[in-house]
Every structure is written in structure tokens, then in C-alpha cells.
Amino acid sequence: MYFAIVSKTNPYTYLGSRPLDVAPEADLHSRLALTAFQRFDPVTLLGGVGSALRKGKFLRSRKGIARRHDLEGMRVVGRGLFPYQVDGDDLGDADGLDIGYEPEALAVVLP
Predict the structure, then answer these.
(1) CA torsion, points 90, 6, 15, 30, in degrees to nearest 10?
(2) Contact between 44 and 59 (Cβ < 8 Å)
């Protein structure tokens, strides 16, 4: 795997005012969603971005992109150290990460 996005909400982020829908199944009331890019080529990368800006068909059907949802947890292991970030903040490098779903771990206040 070249990179992975673990989601708890959708959209993942915005490009200007346009949402990037990487994991439409993700929401505040579900467990974790994973979008993992197992291929690192221009068609997969550019197609994935374009798909996230539209209806997501490419992301759902492209070989080399694994999508899972409703996950309790996962272990990400690298072939050495790899950089990782949470909510856009760089947290350094690791050779493995254990990522888990913790219900009720954060109180969210909505207007």
C-alpha cells in the first residue's frame, strides 16, 4: 500500500468549496472507513482525486484502490518508517500504527 486514508466523516476535506468524497459511508455515527491506494501511478492518483470531486465511481471500481467501512480497527505496517498525520497535523514517522474505533471518545456539539 502506498498511502491510506482513514475516515470518520465525509467529506474528507474540501478543495476550495468543493467537497472531496473519499469514503461516502463514513459519518459521525458509524465506525471507521478505509481507502487504501495499493497502486501509485498517475491514472490511479489523478482518477482518484477526480472521482472524489464527482460521484466516486472511479474510487469504487478501480483495481488497486481498496475500500472498507464499518471497521473496529486496523494495523498499518510499513516496509520501514513512514510519515503519518492526523487531521492535517504531521505526527512524525512510524513503522506501524494501530488505529481503533473508540465510541463516545469525543463529544461533538452541533449548532
Answers:
(1) -130
(2) no
